[in-house]
Write a structure and sequence with these properties.
The protein is of the alpha/beta class and 554 residues long. Helix content is 31%, strand content 11%. It contains 18 helices and eleven strands.
């Protein structure tokens, strides 16, 4: 079993014990790993403490052979987990000191939250690191739904330790940085100020820094290699890790690919156009689908031609919003609506439902009130999307016209924001006010790698289309790409076949992944309006906050 390291000691953190303390002192105790000595100091380890400051340990870099040498590990502070569901699953939650800037150690350290789930069996497999989407949500909270009791990937814990790593400024990380939602560019300044008031620079919050944090944490915990699972924005971060720290990654699952070279603001409409073309073309070659729907491409053309433009725009926007629940077939299912009045009634029904993340995972009691506000970081979201997306709007144009649609349909798609937090024009104004500098051009260039990679795409996904995944696969020399016909955005969250493929890859990332389970599915599912109330009804069973779709996309 891989265990947390404190200085040079391997340590499974017991309750009320920490490597370091919350007062800034050196809390590591000397001991012997051969005797199983538990090192640390007792004290208040709750998340409201100031954390470990001024730690004298520095994270080393990975040697060419993946070893870490004899350098001391990072300062580690134990903290309480989010809910009792974590502790019931044997999780350990900590903050780990990492450099603010890996290239400039003089700038000091910050702390990154980590929830560690030990393997429930012999732990003989490679450790797994889970990277969630957003950017904005806490990784230690959001990814737990995959691996806690009832989660879709919980079976993998028999052989694999799991690390759920927060990003800077959010979750268990310190400082955790928040700001009030804004409605205009002039209201965004406090979000930028929240970052600088915390002692960081806006340029300190980027995907490249997140990847460096992950590498430093694994280095300190003496974990030479891991298998990475990334969903949505987590695929972008996963590819950044593959690019910058290739020796650390033994294999990667990219589920719902958001490519580094794609601009979420200007090319969100391209995602919708691409995936609906994929649905239409696939249906044409599938007898069951073509018999049920006829010529889908022609029907979409007719729908756009015959309906009032504002109604068409609203339909596309609502379908994008409800993507996790089967967006593409939902749009196709509206094509035969008889009148504009019927279409508007269905649109009103769609608009009345909140976007809610559905999961069977047992989080235990509701999130503790004292840390609930740490579940998401709007300043972190803004720093990422402004420096890595909005900064490149002018050099990453949309290419909606490439998917064979008529000029009228192309015009209907153009300008749709897809999964982006806000439209391109508003993004430019907001990000100018926010002030985050552009990242280097490297952050919009495709990743080239020979690391074993499993790409999973979903036939119903209008946020991260199959077309984008195909483009990413061209730069990967050791890749398997499977499309789940009935899958929705981040398919392994809700599709059993996708889960099986992910589990198989975790166990043997260098072996081919058998996708024969996909043969059980029809090409597309068509929903009708009678299904909507049951399909889209919100749930509060987990006691988790309901978040707008705009904050849960990349």
């Amino acid at each position: 079993m891989t265990r947390f390291a404190c200085a040079s000691f391997l340590l499974l953190l017991p309750p009320a014990t920490a490597c370091g303390d919350d007062t800034g002192g050196d809390g590591a105790a000397e001991g012997s790993t051969s005797g199983g000595t538990e090192a640390g100091t007792d004290g208040d380890t709750g998340l409201d403490t100031s954390g470990t400051e001024g730690a004298d340990a520095e994270s080393g870099s990975t040697d060419a052979d993946g070893s870490t040498g004899d350098e001391p590990g990072p300062a580690v502070t134990e903290v309480d987990c989010w809910t009792t569901g974590f502790t019931d699953a044997g999780a350990e939650c900590v903050r780990v000191a990492v450099p603010v800037d890996a290239d400039d150690p003089s700038r000091g350290e910050l702390e990154i939250g980590v929830a560690y789930l030990p393997a429930t069996g012999d732990g003989s497999g490679l450790p797994v690191v889970a990277l969630v989407g957003g950017p904005g949500p806490s990784g230690s909270l959001e990814a737990a739904g995959l691996f806690l009791d009832g989660g879709p990937l919980v079976a993998s814990r028999a052989e694999h330790d799991v690390y759920l790593i927060d990003y800077r400024a959010v979750g268990l990380s310190e400082p955790a940085i928040g700001c009030a939602p804004f409605g205009s560019p002039r209201e965004v300044t406090p979000c930028a100020d929240a970052i600088t008031d915390a002692g960081l620079e806006l340029s300190d919050i980027t995907s490249a820094h997140f990847a460096a944090d992950i590498d430093a944490i694994l280095e300190g915990f003496d974990v030479p290699q891991v298998v990475v699972w990334g969903g949505s924005y987590g695929t972008r971060l996963g590819m950044t890790l593959m690019r910058d720290y290739p020796g650390r990654v033994a294999g990667a699952v990219l589920d719902g690919v958001f490519p580094i070279e794609i601009n979420g603001f200007t090319q969100g409409d391209e995602a919708i156009a691409a995936q609906l073309a994929f649905v239409a073309d696939r249906c044409e070659t599938e007898p069951g689908c073509s018999e049920a729907l006829g010529d889908v491409r022609a029907q979409i053309e007719a729908f756009v031609a015959e309906r009032e433009p504002g109604l068409v725009d609203d339909f596309i926007a609502q379908v994008s919003r409800l993507n996790r629940h089967g967006a593409a077939p939902l749009l196709v299912s509206t094509l035969a609506i008889a009148t504009d009045e019927d279409a508007q009634a269905l649109l009103n029904t769609l608009a009345g439902y909140d976007y809610t993340e559905l999961s069977d995972a047992d989080y235990g009691s509701p999130i503790r009130d004292d840390i609930a506000e740490r579940a998401e970081s709007l300043p972190m979201t803004m720093a990422i999307v402004c420096s890595e997306e909005a900064a490149f709007i002018d050099v990453q144009p949309s290419e909606v016209a490439q998917f064979g649609w008529s000029e009228q349909v192309v015009a209907a798609f153009e300008g749709q924001q897809g999964g982006a937090p806000f439209p391109p024009a508003f993004a430019t104004m907001v990000c100018d006010a926010f002030g985050a500098p552009a990242t280097p051009d490297l952050e919009i260039e495709p990743v080239l790698s020979d690391i074993p990679t499993l790409i999973i795409s979903a036939g119903q996904d209008v946020q991260t289309p199959v077309h984008w995944a195909d483009a990413v696969a061209e730069g990967l020399d050791n890749v398997t790409h499977h499309v789940v016909p009935m899958g929705q955005h981040v398919a392994s969250v809700g599709n059993g076949c996708a889960r099986d493929m992910v589990a198989a890859f975790f166990d043997a990332p260098t072996e081919p992944v058998d996708g024969s389970c996909l043969e059980q599915y029809p090409t597309e599912l068509v929903l009708d309006s009678e299904d909507l109330a049951q399909t889209f009804a919100p749930t509060s069973a987990l006691g988790l906050p309901v978040r707008p779709a705009a904050r849960r996309t990349w």
